[in-house]
Write a structure and sequence with these properties.
- This protein has no helices and eleven strands.
- It is an all-beta fold and 117 residues long.
- Strands 2, 4, 5, 6, 9, 10 and 11 form a seven-stranded mixed sheet that branches. Strands 1-3-8-7 form a four-stranded antiparallel sheet, with no helix packed on it.
- The radius of gyration is 13 Å and the shape is globular.
- The termini are far apart.
Length: 117
């Protein structure tokens, strides 16, 4: 079972930037896609972005499109989420996930992102 470890969260002012990282324990050749989700207090977990490992195709939630960029480094088995122009509404625990084409089957422990106004 794939293990995912996130890092890079923290406290930032509105308008600032953060980069999250997620390292996978297994060779990413066996993973079809990796993604980021987030969960704010009192809200359900929501999709943020994903990237297919082989082709590098990306997909974003409308709420982050144009501000967040997902990328991967195959040599390091790592996926990144560059977050720019952060807003207080982006405050949440961010989770990395690994998945097939139809299901997410591996989750990281989460990393807290807090955006102050």
């Amino acid at each position: 079972q794939v293990q995912l470890v996130e890092s890079g969260g923290g406290l930032v002012q509105a308008g600032g930037s953060l980069r999250l990282s997620c390292a996978a324990s297994e060779r990413t050749l066996s993973i079809y896609r990796m993604g980021w989700f987030r969960q704010a207090p009192g809200k359900e977990r929501e999709f943020v972005a994903h990237i297919t490992w082989s082709a590098g195709s990306t997909y974003y939630a409308d709420s982050v499109k144009g501000r967040f960029t997902i990328s991967r480094d195959s040599a390091k088995n790592t996926v990144y989420l560059q977050m720019n122009s952060l807003k207080p509404d982006d405050t949440a625990i961010y989770y990395c996930a690994a998945g097939s084409s139809y299901i997410w089957y591996g989750w990281g422990q989460g990393t807290q992102v807090t955006v102050s106004s």
